[in-house]
Amino acid sequence: MTKRDGLLRKILRIVTVAFFFCPLIHAQTTNGLRGVVTDTKGNPVETASIVLNNSLIAMSDAQGNFNFTNVKTGEYEYRVSCLGFEEMRGKTTVKADGTDRLVVRLKPLTLTLREVTVTANQQAMGSKSVIGQDAIRHIQPKSVADMLQLLPGALTVNPTLNNLAQANIREINENAANALGTAVILDGIPVSNDANLQVLSTSKSGEKLSKGEDGMNKQNTAGRGSDLRTMGADNIESVEVIRGIPSVEYGNLTSGVVIIKTKAGYSPLEVKLKADPFSKLAYVGKGFKLTQGGTLNVGVDWSQSYSDIRLRYQGYDRITASTAYSNIFNKNSAHPITFNVNASFYSNVNSYRKDPQLQQLDLNYKNENTGGRLAVRGSVRLNGFFPVLTYDLSGQLARMLDTHHDLIENPDGVVTNSTTNGEAPARFLTKAYYSDYRIEGIPYNLYAQVKTNKYIQLGNRDFTNVKLGLEYRLDGNEGRGLTFDINNPPQAGGAQTLRPRSYRDIPALQSLSAFVEDNATLHIGVSTLQFAAGLRISNLFLNESKAHRPAIFVAEPRMNMEYTFLTKQNNGLFDKLAVSGGFGISNKMPTLLYLYPNKAYFDSNSLSYMGGSDPGSSLAIMTTKVIADTQNPDLRPTRSTKWELGMNARIGKMKGYVTFFRERHRHEYGFNGQLEWLNYNIYNVPVGASKLSYTDGTVHYEYGGTTHTATITPGNEMVTWGRPANNSRSDKWGIEYSWDFGTFAPLRTSLNLDGAWFHIERKEECTKLNFINKTFDYVSVLPAGKGLVEDRVNTNFRFITHIPEVKMIFTTTLQVVWYERSYLVYEDNHGNPRYHLSSDGTHYVVSPLGFYDRQGQWTDWQRAFEDDNRYRLLADRYLLYGFRADTVKPWVMFNFRFTKELGSLAELSFMANNFLNIRKYHINSNTQGKSQLHPDTYFGAEIKLKF
Fold first, then answer.
1. Is the dihedral of CA 84, 86, 90, 92 positive or negative?
2. H/E element holding 565?
């Protein structure tokens, strides 16, 4: 029999057994595996996690004991982990005769250990990176976003709390669609941002909090991913990042998954103090063993940060607190229950003010985000056909308040608060005034998931594990939304005006999902095949009358595999050589922001006449047009299709991997301009008129001692507003790699390198309006296909020196960017350029599809219009270098990290980014623009005390 025949027989065996003969296998003779987890001194370790074959899970009790039931004869791989201890891996053989016992002794995490991992552990199958406790304390992060700099392809960024902290996976620059499509899982519970509605008006300004470029928008996460600053970095035990194809257990995503595990279990009292020139942080945490059994872990974090230390009245303040309770109930019965409760609180306040001496004349704003999360999760042992039922329940509630205060020096002149179509008397507003508006959101989320699995041992070492699950989500918002004094409204700054809107009128989102997945390991001779394949289906329920569309249904198949074909047993070089691959489809459902947008209001000035001070000598009339149907009935979920192919190897102490990936993201969210025609009456009143009145669409006035009726001139304007749309797409491909060369013993130093080549293409999927200004008689429609292409190749060389005898470790990182390039494109679906050289050869021209006039008449575009002064502005024009690539020359940077344990009670850490203070600038060869390549030199220090 060939190996291929053997593999096919194994797969057929799994399918047959899993779906037809599970009851028979369950009836076979099995027994339990008992064990105990202790430290090196023999003391029991409580709340340790014990995992067999990546499928069966147990937790140790107060005496360190654990128990697996219905374990068949065979060889099992185990993994044991606990807060404050080094993870232990090994193999054990189960005889199933009632005598099986596994004893695990965990070593406390300390720099005296011979091996300390301060980089991310890479797993080829699924493209995962795991950042453990040692790595977290060594890099001294301020938020989870700082930890993601350990991912392949990431560049060093100075830690700060003044900017949004979001997860961007396989990116060159920050991208809102990528952040929105990254699922953040905190202690098993998805962190939801789907009910975030903190915007001024979707129809006027899209996802923006402010109509101006005053910096307020930089703090907004509506239409983006979750703000990672809401999670204190010092209370995190580990972070796992899935860059490739995730398990079907995870849904509502496109980019990847960030899985955060906070500290739980017993730990000594820790006090941390951090400082750098721009911020200061303090943390206190401790884990308790409770007298009635179980553990309680508590942590509190306080941070204060300034983007400029000279401006102390512009800063960011954060308080986070978390607690984790863990216990096992009915532990001596046949149906023990593991029970975990995680609760957290956060308060983030970002303030911006001008110099206090000028505050009464200038802008100030504040972004506040206060909230909490409560999660209850655990498992119940059933000992039936499905042995264990796992449950996850959670609730999240936040209050987001954005306040904006500004001096309006040039008011709109005439304002109205009408919310219906037609004419209405209006009010003059001609003097400078202060305008205040508030946007209050109270987003909430409820989440529930139940899952079970059926583990089947196939022979001595082979197994399959079928996982089934159901999931429910509810996202809503009970905030008061946009509110302001109607007598002192925010300045419109254009034809479209603002009206208050309450979020309480917006229906909540409800979704229901189900998933099934099979994980299996098969041994064919000395080679091994691992695979995980599953299907997830989801349905998003909508209020059809308000969303103007039915529910959204998606199906998502995903698969990962790894085939190890070389081991110590069949060659003399490789301890392991394996190929891995995967394919998967995932979807990000639209959020409340895109499903239930604001109405659009347009106020046209029909009359604005100011006479003397006598009553009736002045009159203002506005014609309001309300566009209520701003929803997009054709809105689709963002869809991601990924596939990967890679290889990983281990030779003695050396190990690494290389992975090629390809990703296609379609229907990314945004807002697309819509054209509207305003037709209204303009009432003509001569200078010197008095006693003006308005009744039933008629204006009367006195002039020269007689009463007159105002004549009417038709008014006409073209205006635009924004509708939610799937207006962009992204294509990515590249190579990620990592290689650990092991330790060179004489120098106590190891070399670890990682990096990536990223190629990213982003293009518009929708046509776009070219609106010149309100006085221009035409509006053209430009074709889709404009975009940006970016490439980057980088490598990080990490030299890690670890001296256990003096409890010290330091890392020197050489960051090299070998190649960086970007250029604009404007192409059709076949990659052909949409631009051509102008008739005079001085620039490139993108011809519109056609244009509308003030009467709504459409005219197809003709090439001759480009040189006609009436129409030439309707085409999109670019300088001759507009589509040329800009290439950055290679550049390097040095970073340093240092950690030293001072006895058993204290630990000192220090970090320096760009410590050689290299300042290299890039001059764009096309525009001659100058940009800084290196981040500024940064120094930071941390001291930790343990009691």
1. negative
2. strand 552-567
pLDDT score of 312 more than 90:
no
Three-class secondary structure assignment of 463-519: EEEEEEEEEEEEEEECCCEEEECCCCCCCCCCCEECCCECHHHCCCEEEEEEEEEEE
Q: What contacts 859, CB < 8 A, 6 or more positions away?
A: 850, 851, 852, 853
Q: What does the alpha-carbon distance between residue 529 and residue 548 come to, in Å, rounded to a whole number? A: 48
For residue 356, pLDDT beyond 70: no
Q: What is the pLDDT at residue 311?
A: 57
Name the 3-class secondary structure at 8: helix
What is the C-alpha separation between 56 and 94, in angstroms, rounded?
14
DSSP reduced 3-state for 443: strand
Query: Which of the pair, 304 or 478, is modelled with greater confidence?
Result: 478
Does residue 21 have a pLDDT over 50? no
Task: Please enumerate in sequence order all residues whose Cβ is within 8 A of that of 39, keeping only pairs 6 or more positions apart, or say none.
Answer: 45, 85, 105, 106, 107, 108
Residue 352 near residue 216 (C-beta atoms within 8 A): yes
**pLDDT at 876 > cutoff 80:** yes
Spacing of C-alpha 507 from chain mean position: 24
- Contact in structure between 511 and 449 (CB atoms under 8 Å): no
Q: How far is CA 86 from the centre of its chain?
A: 30
The DSSP result for 38-52, as a single string, is EETTS-B-TT-EEEE
Residue spans of beta strands (DSSP E) within 804-868: 808-826, 835-837, 843-846, 850-853, 858-860
Size of the chain, expressed as the number of residues it contains:
947
Per-residue buried b or exposed e for 762-785, using 16+ beta carbons within 10 Å of the residue's own CB? bbbbebbbbeeeeeeebbbbbbbb
Distance from C-alpha of 821 to C-alpha of 635, rounded to nearest angstrom: 33
* HSE-CB of 824 using CA atoms within 13 angstroms: 16
Look at residue 855 and tell me whether its pLDDT is greater than 70: yes
* 83 close to 265: Cβ distance less than 8 angstroms: yes
